[in-house]
Specification:
six-stranded mixed sheet; Immunoglobulin-like; mainly beta; 4% helix; 3 domains; binds copper (II) ion; binds CU-O-CU linkage; 39% strand
Length: 508
C-alpha cells in the first residue's frame, strides 16, 4: 500500500550542472562567525513562557554578495535559539506562513514541529502526519521536566522533512537545570551553539536539492549557524560548544588541526557521568555533543581549525573537509567557569540501567527493499495505510527493554532516532562476528540517536515513558526517513491521539 503517498522529491541537479563554481564560493575562514539569534518570549504567565515562531520564506545572505531564498523560523536560517529553564513550561505557537508550493520541488509545505530530545506528549511531539497547512498554526506545549540538555526543533512534515529542513526549518533549544548551572564549566557567553549543515547553491545563490537516488542530499559548502566556513575570534580560555549535526545526510568526524583533544562533556540527553577526551569525534545526523576546547593552549595570534575527516557514504567536495576556524585574539576576560570536573552528572537513571535475563529484547532490522528503506520490512506509508494502527513494538508504560538495531543491509550507515525516550548504548557488534564491544567513549552518555554503521548491530537499553501513546522511530538521514525508513511504537494502552487531539487552526 501507500503508492499514492510516495514523495515528490527527485533529482533536480544533473551531474554538477548549474552548481555555483567553486571559485565563486567564499574562501574558507573568511566569513565572520555568529551565534544564531536568541528567541524572545511573547509573554509569561505563572510557570508558563509563551513563544511565537513564524515559518516563512525569506531572502537572506548566506554567501557574500548573494541573496538566498530560505524557509526559516521567524525567517532566520537557522532558527532562533530558545533558552529554557527546567520546570518552566513552554508553549510555542508555530505559524505556517510558507508559500503554497516548494520553489523547485512543487509540493505543499505542510509542517509538523518536533522538539528533538523532549519527552513530549504525543499530540505535541511533531508526529509526521499531524500536519499544519500553510495559512494555519498550532500551539506546542512542553513540560521541560527533563534534565539540562541540548535539544533542537525541526520540521517533521510527512515525506518532506528532508527538503523542509534543508530549506532552513531547524533551530536549537537549550534546557538548563540547577545541576548544570552549579558546575564550573563554561556558561553564558562561552556556551556557544554550532549548528552544522551542508548546502549546494546554483550560480545565482539559490539552494539546489539532489537526493542522489534517495541516498542523501550533500552540499559542497559547510555552514556553521548558516555561515560558510566561518572564522570565530576567541580568548585564551575554555569554550563549550554545543555541536548539532543538522545536516540532512552528511556525517562528520571532527578533529582539531593542532592535534589537541576535544573534551566531550554532554551527549544528546545531557551531561555525561564523566568527561571523555578524544582526538576525533564521529558525529552522525541529529546527534548533539557538547565539547570543550581549551584555547589557553595557544598563543595570541594562532589560528586553530576544526576539520572534518569524512566518514564513509558521504559525497565529498574540495572543501567539505573544512568546517570553521578559531582565531586566538585576546587573553581571557573572565576565568570563572573555566574548568571541567571529573564527575559531571552521576544521577542519570538511564545510565544506571543494565539488562537482566528477563529484560524483553526486540530487534529492529534495517533493510532496503524495492527501492525503499524499511524497518522490519515496514515503511511509514504502511503505517498511514493501516490507519496509524500498525506498530513495530508496544512496550508497556515504564517497561525497561533492550532494543537491538541490526544494519545487515550493507552499503549505508543509519543514525537511528527513537522519540520520547533517552537510552543507553550497551554495545556494538561489527560484521556479525559475535563479539560485542563497548560503545565509543563519546557515546557513553544518555542518547536519543545512535549511529549504526554498515553491518553493525547495536544494542541499547531504555525505559518507555513517561507518556502513553504513539511515537516514531526512524533513520535521521532525512532522505532515508522520507523514503520511508520510519515506523512507530505504542507505549502502554491508550494515550492521546497525536493527530486529532490538537488540530491546527486557520490563521486568525
Ligand atoms: Cu530529529 Cu523524529 O526527529
Ligand atoms: Cu538511514
Amino acid at each position: 500500500g501507500g503508492a499514492l503517498l510516495l514523495p515528490l522529491e527527485r533529482s533536480v541537479l544533473a551531474a554538477g550542472q548549474n552548481r555555483m563554481a567553486e571559485s565563486a564560493l567564499p574562501a574558507p575562514f573568511t566569513v565572520p562567525f555568529t551565534p544564531p539569534p536568541v528567541a524572545s518570549k511573547v509573554r509569561s504567565e505563572g510557570i508558563t513562557d509563551y513563544y511565537s515562531l513564524t515559518m516563512r520564506e525569506q531572502a537572506t545572505q548566506i554567501l557574500p554578495g548573494y541573496q538566498t531564498r530560505i524557509w526559516g523560523y521567524n525567517g532566520s536560517f537557522p532558527g532562533p535559539t530558545l533558552d529554557v529553564q527546567q520546570g518552566r513550561e513552554v508553549v510555542v505557537r508555530q505559524i505556517n506562513s510558507l508559500p503554497s508550493t516548494h520553489p523547485i520541488l512543487g509540493y505543499t509545505p505542510t509542517t509538523s514541529t518536533h522538539l528533538h530530545g523532549s519527552a513530549s506528549l504525543p499530540q505535541f511531539d511533531g508526529y509526521a502526519s499531524d500536519v499544519t497547512y500553510p495559512g494555519s498554526w498550532k500551539d506546542y506545549r512542553y513540560p521541560n521536566s527533563q534534565g539540562s540538555r541540548t535539544l533542537w526543533y525541526h520540521d517533521h512534515g510527512v515525506h518532506h522533512t528532508a527538503s523542509n529542513v534543508y530549506m532552513g526549518l531547524a533551530g536549537m533549544y537549550r534546557m538548563h537545570d540547577p545541576l548544570e548551572q552549579s558546575l564550573p564549566i563554561p556558561q553564558g557567553y562561552y556556551d556557544v551553539p554550532l549548528i552544522v549543515t551542508d548546502a549546494m547553491f546554483d550560480a545565482t545563490g539559490q539552494l539546489l536539492y539532489d537526493d542522489n537516488d534517495q541516498s542523501g542530499v550533500f552540499g559542497d559548502v559547510i555552514l556553521v549557524n548558516g555561515r560558510p566556513w566561518p572564522v570565530m575570534k576567541v580568548e585564551r580560555r575554555k569554550y563549550r560548544f554545543r555541536i548539532l549535526n543538522a545536516s540532512v545526510a552528511r556525517s562528520y568526524r571532527w578533529q582539531l588541526d593542532s592535534g589537541e583533544p576535544l573534551v566531550v562533556i554532554a551527549t544528546d540527553a545531557g551531561l555525561m557521568t564523566a568527561p571523555q577526551s578524544v582526538k576525533s569525534l564521529l558525529h552522525g545526523n541529529a546527534e548533539r555533543y557538547e565539547v570543550i576546547i581549551d584555547f589557553a593552549k595557544y598563543a595570541i595570534g594562532r589560528r586553530v581549525t576544526l576539520r572534518n575527516l569524512s566518514p564513509k557514504n558521504n559525497v565529498d567536495y574540495t572543501n567539505t573537509n573544512k568546517v570553521m576556524a578559531f582565531d586566538v585574539v585576546a587573553k581571557a576576560s573572565s576565568i570563572s567557569h573555566n574548568s571541567i570536573p571529573s564527575v559531571l552528572n552521576p544521577y542519570n537513571h538511564i545510565m544506571a540501567l543494565t539488562p537482566t535475563d528477563t529484560t524483553p529484547t526486540r530487534t529492529m532490522a534495517l533493510v532496503r527493499q524495492s527501492g525503499e528503506w524499511t524497518i522490519n520490512g515496514q515503511t511509514w506509508a504502511d503505517v498511514v495505510a493501516s490507519g496509524y494502527t500498525r506498530a513495530l513494538a508496544n512496550p508497556a508504560l515504564n517497561a525497561v527493554e533492550v532494543w537491538e538495531i541490526h544494519n545487515d543491509s550493507g552499503g549505508w550507515h543509519h543514525p537511528m532516532h527513537i522519540h520520547l525516550v533517552d537510552f543507553k548504548v550497551l554495545d556494538r557488534e561489527f560484521d556479525r562476528n559475535g563479539v560485542r564491544v563497548p560503545p565509543r567513549p563519546p557515546e557513553r552518555g544518555a542518547k536519543d540517536v545512535v549511529y549504526v554503521g554498515e553491518n553493525e548491530r547495536v544494542r541499547l537499553i531504555t525505559q518507555f515513558g513517561p507518556h502513553r501513546g504513539r511515537y516514531m522511530i526512524h533513520c535521521h538521514n532525512l532522505v532515508h526517513e522520507d523514503h520511508d525508513m520510519m515506523g512507530q511504537f505504542t507505549v502502554g494502552e491508550g494515550g492521546y491521539d497525536p493527530i486529532t487531539t490538537a488540530p491546527a487552526r486557520p490563521l486568525p
